[in-house]
Amino acid sequence: MQPGELDARPDPPTSVRWRIVGLLMLMSFVNYFNRISMPVAGDRIMREYPIDEVRMGLVYSALLVAYTAFMVPGGWFSDRVGGRVALATVGLGTAAFCVLSGLAGHPALAVGMVWPTLLVVRAFMGMFTSPLYPAAGRVVTRWIPFRGRALANALVMTAAMLGIALAHPLFARLMDAVGWRQAFAVSGLGTALLAALWIWYGRDDPGRHPSVNRAERRLIGGGGPGGPVGPSAGRLADPSPAAVASASAPADGWPALSRNRSLWLLTACYAAIGYSEYLVFYWSGHYFEQVLQLGERTSRIAAMLPPLAMGVGLPLGGWVADRLMGPLGYRWARASVAMGGMVGCGLLLCAGTLTASPAAIVASFALALGAIGICEGASWATAIDLGGSRAATSAAIVNTGGNVGGFLSPVVTPWIGALLTPDLGRELGWAWGLRIGGLVCLAGACLWPWIDAGERGRNRPRGDGAPAGPPPTGGDRPVEPCVRAEPQQQSNCTS
């Protein structure tokens, strides 16, 4: 080694990008923690005020209705102002309405006004949370190399499951310590502090972050050491924002998407997934404690297990779908994983209501949500593929379907239980409400054989430089198009 050679060696890349992902995970965790805090407090609120299960279910669904209605505008807002401002708005707005959730039960407020006040407050909270995941996806695209973005997005979604799981024991303990009104205030304060941390540390552009060194900027811009990897290695450069904008220029738009049969089938399928997920999210704790009479402490622990299981299923499903592309091909790798997860969830939800063992019931619910988590990666990847140059729009359509299903189940489940209780009894009436969720999931699974991610090719207008019809494949795998890199990036395209 020559003198001075060690000093000339370039510095290793900094890891600011993963700290940014860590902040996104915290925001995702806190978002779902605040969502589920209301169902955790629901039983106490119903005991204190004249609010029945169906009306409380409407409070739960009010957030989801507003979240769904403002999802596409939230994505537009994120593109307009950037991820940093959008996520700061999400954090500060959510914090404010979390505090107001506790004030809705203030003694100065007339008893008859508590329920409508909760409806309005939770709806506004849903509106402010709607840009979260579009903005987070935008930040991940800017900060994470091409080959690491799937992992980063999976981590952000897994944090949401942890938020759901830990909301039951942590928010319940907080209520025990300070009361449910004050618990919402403490949660809101914590959310505001996280938003302040994001405002201080977060940036839209890695080049503008003072802690990012040149090596990390190069790594982010080039897709990682050696560039992109995987089936497209050597053919696809990590697209720059300018290249993405060019490649994603509006084509046929809504008319093309409206003719896409697979997109609408996937939307219906994802509605079934959302119905089953939100059924367990919102009503499992109540079912364990009030219907099965498992006790408050046991019910809190039991309600924590299904989201934890889903947190395991999320990355597992994506990994398995990728591994199966070799033997099964592009289309059926995703379809088989999604169908298997949905069938498993449907059967487990039904099985959980047919046993008298509390441990078996809790285990069935946990495994059911783990199975439905396996579907998420394949469903989202297919939604994006179906959109082609309109990937964000097609994903928003599919996610809207999931939220419609999620809106229905918190209201329909207790309604079925109340409808059947006079004839079958409370426990069996609720059991049928849960079985309906399982049957909806099984019905959704039946749609997957007709969902073809290759149908996106038929949405491209002729004359855009690509022929109509399915995308070119190799062994039923999509061959990714060559995207020209910016001048400072090495391009693998040939002129």
UniProtKB/TrEMBL annotation:
<feature type="transmembrane region" description="Helical">
    <location>
        <begin position="301"/>
        <end position="320"/>
    </location>
</feature>
<dbReference type="GO" id="GO:0016020">
    <property type="term" value="C:membrane"/>
</dbReference>
<keyword id="KW-1133">Transmembrane helix</keyword>
<feature type="transmembrane region" description="Helical">
    <location>
        <begin position="263"/>
        <end position="281"/>
    </location>
</feature>
<feature type="transmembrane region" description="Helical">
    <location>
        <begin position="429"/>
        <end position="451"/>
    </location>
</feature>
<dbReference type="InterPro" id="IPR011701">
    <property type="entry name" value="MFS"/>
</dbReference>
<feature type="region of interest" description="Disordered">
    <location>
        <begin position="216"/>
        <end position="240"/>
    </location>
</feature>
<feature type="transmembrane region" description="Helical">
    <location>
        <begin position="396"/>
        <end position="417"/>
    </location>
</feature>
<feature type="transmembrane region" description="Helical">
    <location>
        <begin position="332"/>
        <end position="354"/>
    </location>
</feature>
<dbReference type="InterPro" id="IPR020846">
    <property type="entry name" value="MFS_dom"/>
</dbReference>
<feature type="transmembrane region" description="Helical">
    <location>
        <begin position="20"/>
        <end position="38"/>
    </location>
</feature>
<feature type="transmembrane region" description="Helical">
    <location>
        <begin position="150"/>
        <end position="171"/>
    </location>
</feature>
<feature type="transmembrane region" description="Helical">
    <location>
        <begin position="58"/>
        <end position="78"/>
    </location>
</feature>
<dbReference type="InterPro" id="IPR036259">
    <property type="entry name" value="MFS_trans_sf"/>
</dbReference>
<feature type="transmembrane region" description="Helical">
    <location>
        <begin position="183"/>
        <end position="201"/>
    </location>
</feature>
<protein>
    <submittedName>
        <fullName>Putative sulfoacetate transporter SauU</fullName>
    </submittedName>
</protein>
<dbReference type="GO" id="GO:0022857">
    <property type="term" value="F:transmembrane transporter activity"/>
</dbReference>
<feature type="compositionally biased region" description="Gly residues">
    <location>
        <begin position="220"/>
        <end position="229"/>
    </location>
</feature>
<keyword id="KW-0472">Membrane</keyword>
<keyword id="KW-0812">Transmembrane</keyword>
<feature type="region of interest" description="Disordered">
    <location>
        <begin position="457"/>
        <end position="495"/>
    </location>
</feature>
<dbReference type="InterPro" id="IPR050382">
    <property type="entry name" value="MFS_Na/Anion_cotransporter"/>
</dbReference>
<dbReference type="Pfam" id="PF07690">
    <property type="entry name" value="MFS_1"/>
</dbReference>
<feature type="domain" description="Major facilitator superfamily (MFS) profile">
    <location>
        <begin position="20"/>
        <end position="456"/>
    </location>
</feature>
<feature type="transmembrane region" description="Helical">
    <location>
        <begin position="360"/>
        <end position="384"/>
    </location>
</feature>
